[in-house]
Design a protein that fits this description.
The complex is a heterodimer of chains A (437) and B (293). Chain A has 437 residues and is α/β, with parallel strands linked by helices. Chain A is 48% helix and 13% strand. In chain A, the strands form 2 sheets. In chain A, strands 1, 2, 3, 4, 5 and 11 form a 6-stranded mixed sheet that branches. A 5-stranded mixed sheet of chain A has the order 8-7-9-6-10. The chains are: A alpha/beta (437), B mainly alpha (293).
């Protein structure tokens, strides 16, 4: 059943693709964006197609991140793979291990002769998708990092000064007490709990999330998320959950609806939440750097990214790869990046795009939009804060979500839950290791 | 005396059963064989290489206490879904059977939910019970009950059971209703004349006469609960909170299609195949004895 399903999926993918004139070389680009982001991607593609006449990029939406990755894998098995596939950061290790299925971006760029300077990319963004030797394997596309969103009106309503210092979790803890005492029903809510409160937490405090440099140095990596710093943080969060100061809403970004509706005072969420919050919030909001525990690890180090990168797939003609190179080089150009950054809240992937945005006065007009950039780039990344490269990471995140729920409901202590997450996650890492020997 | 028609030679009978055999072979035996074959490997997602591990995938699964726990979850879930979809269906069918006017409208309305795909049904129920904007959870809140299926495992289980059973009530209703119509009026009237009241007639005449239908629905509903409910679980709980709604088939789906672990996913399908096969054998061997045809 599985095989026929996969083949069917791939077949429908090829049949449904729009037909274009074949004097030009066609480049297939599969992505995971709908709505506003989908429109912006379409606009980028149209601009590229209009700018030259040798290549035509055909973009198609393939579902959410997981579905897009699945569609790409199924298509590869049926030998109908696209040229460019968008893969979320969680799938990075899967793609990296797929030698024979992918063509590294640095190779594509060298072969196609397109303009490409790896040093132009922001280190902490690039690092996630680069080998330990410094070769870029995929092109960062949309990258964001978690920040703290503040509903100023909710602070006023609870009688708390909205300009109060929220730089550390110690101070946030005091503020949560005050908000609760002031009658707030939802002082703190979060999105993407594992990404923000464990993965980014570890990088930000410069403590390891997994051994072997978070998996960068080898497949024989083990989770270290049951360390002292992480457990202390989750214990505090568990206390807040018990006291009704931290409200758990779900594993994904369900909390965004609560925050945008004005119910919650504080919200830890990606910087890319900007577009939605700006469009929907009927209250005064601002954005702060993600808090850290004063005196724990080397905090604040730097936070890491989430989002997706573009992978080039193996098995196409040299001429087509030239088109891929031209398109990727267009996407990295300063103008395209600057407008993407300003429209979406995603990070600019090149330093030049950030600089162009600053010069255009965007940060002055939209205060706080540069916080994510500063938070990521203030310090040179360490082995603990370069990113994560773990196989089966989508499943491991599922395990972490389950264990975190046990903390929020009071069924387990933070230490018990994280010990169990490590044990279960390590078993999956060993499986991934043996599948990719 | 049974009548037997005997074919002369082999060609014609073979030709006659060929379409069914070919369909079964292509759509059932071949994929099932593939699943068994794949369950012996740990392949990489792209199909570039595969490590032969023998029964390693099974060993990995059966050593995982969370996987073992999901057998219990599946049992609880399947029993609840079967009960919640059959008992109300029988009740509604009995009511509809007694209707004299407007039974056509009543019937049609009751069949509607069957047309709703499980995943869509999941979303509908999720909206009603959404902890923030759900109508039902709001009323419960007014009554002083704090509904939170995001953290409360029991509530999450209740919600996925109801959402899974809801559409099936229509299906079961159809079968019960047809079976009730087939109960001979004369038998019931005779009993009524003898002074048997409604409940007595129901227990001693109607229910035994319904037993073939009930048995058929029991088998079909258990198979449904085992195999076709992952859409509901995927949209409502994603298997959570913790692992309280992770049933076996949902794990097959999420490990295979989200986690890209096709080896483990295949091994789980094989285990599921064995479990359901055993269940069906048990049902036919023991329960069917009590069925009156």
């Amino acid at each position: 059943m599985k095989k026929s399903l996969i083949a069917g999926l791939a077949l429908s993918g090829t049949i449904l693709s729009p037909i274009v004139a074949y004097a030009e070389t066609e480049v297939q680009f599969w992505h995971a964006f709908t709505g506003r982001l989908g429109e912006l991607v379409k606009a980028q593609v149209e601009e590229f197609n209009a700018s030259q006449s040798d290549y035509v990029v055909v973009e198609s939406h393939k579902g959410n991140y997981s579905e897009t990755l699945n569609a790409g894998i199924a298509a590869f098995r049926a030998q109908e793979q696209p040229h460019i596939l968008m893969v979320f950061e969680v799938g990075t290790a899967t793609m990296m291990s797929a030698q024979g299925a992918i063509k590294p971006v640095y190779e594509v760029m060298a072969d196609s002769g397109a303009e490409f300077d790896p040093d132009a990319y922001i280190g902490s963004v690039k690092g996630y998708y680069t080998t330990t030797d410094g070769d870029m394997l995929s092109l960062p596309f949309n990258s964001s990092t978690p920040v703290l969103w503040v509903n100023r009106d909710a602070f006023e309503a609870a009688g708390v000064d909205p300009d109060t210092d929220l730089s550390t979790w110690q101070k946030v803890g005091e503020t949560l007490d005050a908000l609760k005492a002031g009658g707030s029903e939802c002082p703190l809510v979060t999105a993407w709990q594992s990404w923000i409160h464990l993965e980014n937490f570890s990088a930000y405090h410069d403590v390891p999330f997994a051994s072997k440099d978070n998996g960068f140095a080898g497949l024989d990596t083990e989770l270290m998320l049951n360390g002292e710093a992480q457990v202390a943080h989750l214990t505090a969060m568990g206390e807040w959950a018990k006291d009704g100061k931290f409200i758990y809403t779900g594993r994904r970004n369900e909390g965004g609806a609560n925050f945008r509706a004005g119910e919650c005072a504080l919200f830890t969420e990606s910087s890319a939440g900007y577009a939605g919050i700006k469009a929907e919030a009927q209250f005064d909001f601002d954005v702060r750097p993600l808090p850290y525990w004063e005196g724990v690890g080397n905090a604040p180090q730097n936070t890491i990214i989430g989002g997706a990168s573009l992978w080039v797939m193996e098995g196409h003609d040299a001429e087509e790869y030239k088109g891929v190179g031209a398109f990727l080089s267009f996407l990295s150009s300063s103008d395209v990046q600057a407008s993407w950054h300003q429209n979406t809240g995603y990070l600019p992937i090149t330093a030049a795009a950030g600089e162009a945005t600053r010069l255009a006065g965007f940060y002055d007009e939209n205060p706080g939009t540069d916080i994510a950039v500063i938070q990521m780039t203030a310090k040179e990344p360490t082995a603990n804060s370069k990113g994560l490269r773990l196989g089966s990471f989508d499943q491991i995140r599922g395990i972490i979500d389950e264990e975190l729920e046990a903390i929020w409901s009071g069924d387990k202590t933070a230490q018990e839950a994280m010990d169990s997450a490590k044990e279960r996650g390590d078993a999956l890492l060993r499986r991934f290791e043996s599948a990719n020997k | 005396m049974e009548k037997r028609v005997t074919f002369r030679g082999w060609l014609l009978p073979l030709a006659l059963i060929a379409p069914q055999v070919i369909i079964s072979a292509v759509f059932f035996f071949y994929p099932a064989g593939q699943a068994i074959w794949q369950s012996l490997f740990i392949p990489d997602p792209f199909g570039l290489s595969a490590q032969f591990v023998g029964l390693g995938n099974f060993e990995f699964l059966l050593n995982d206490k969370f996987y073992r726990a999901s057998f219990l979850t599946t049992a609880v879930f399947s029993i609840l879904v079967t009960l919640c979809s059959m008992v109300p269906a029988l009740f509604l069918a009995v009511l509809a059977d007694r209707l004299i006017k407007g039974s056509g409208v009543y019937r049609t309305l009751l069949i509607w939910p069957y047309a709703v795909a499980p995943a869509v049904a999941g979303v509908l129920w999720l909206f009603m019970f959404n902890t923030r904007v759900g109508v039902v959870s709001w009323y419960l809140g007014q009554l002083g009950y704090d509904w939170n299926h995001v953290l409360n495992g029991g509530e999450a289980m209740g919600l996925v059971v109801v959402a899974s059973a809801w559409g099936r009530i229509s299906y079961n209703f159809l079968f019960f209703f047809a079976a009730l119509q087939a109960v001979p009026r004369s038998v019931i009237e005779a009993a009524a004349i003898d002074g048997a009241h409604f409940w007595r007639r129901f227990w001693t005449i109607v229910l035994p006469l319904l037993s073939p239908t009930t048995f058929f629905l029991l088998v079909v509903n258990i198979v449904y609960a085992f195999f076709e409910t992952f859409g509901v679980i995927h949209t409502i709980t994603g298997g959570g909170p913790q692992q309280t709604t992770t049933i076996l088939v949902y794990k097959v789906f999420s490990d295979g299609f989200v986690g890209q672990d096709l080896g483990s996913s295949s091994a789980q399908s094989v285990i599921l195949l064995i479990v359901v096969g055993l269940l069906t054998v048990i049902q036919f061997k023991y329960i069917e004895k009590r069925v009156h045809y």
